[in-house]
Specification:
single chain, about 110 residues, mainly alpha, elongated
């Protein structure tokens, strides 16, 4: 996962879920559980990549990145210095992570 891919992927996931359950009665509890599980996976993997956790190495190596943070920031497209470990980069990353539920919610809402 990466910052360039996660938002569209979350949106598409929300739309796909909404389409798959469109003929079923509204179940707010189920929708909340699915959303929580989806967010746990996205945040779990993405934050771990950003923090360069060892278990993410196969993911970022498969993407030909230099590290998990390199993959999260650059996605093989941009040229942001992923080795820079400053407060601004962390604050921007945190702000992006905070938008993740919005993308999933928007997909679910537009898919209904």
């Amino acid at each position: 996962m990466s910052f360039l891919i996660d938002a569209p992927w979350l949106y598409a996931s929300g739309r796909a879920y909404a389409a798959a359950t469109a003929d079923e009665p509204d179940r707010p509890g189920r929708d909340a559980a699915i959303a929580a599980a989806t967010m746990a996976v996205f945040w779990g993997v993405s934050v771990s990549l950003y923090l360069d956790r060892g278990w993410t190495r196969p993911i970022w190596r498969a993407c030909r990145a230099r590290s998990g943070r390199d993959w999260m920031l650059n996605s093989g497209v941009l040229r942001i210095d992923h080795r820079r470990d400053d407060v601004t980069t962390h604050l921007v990353a945190g702000a992006i992570f905070a938008t993740y539920p919005m993308w999933l919610w928007a997909g679910m809402r537009h898919g209904r």
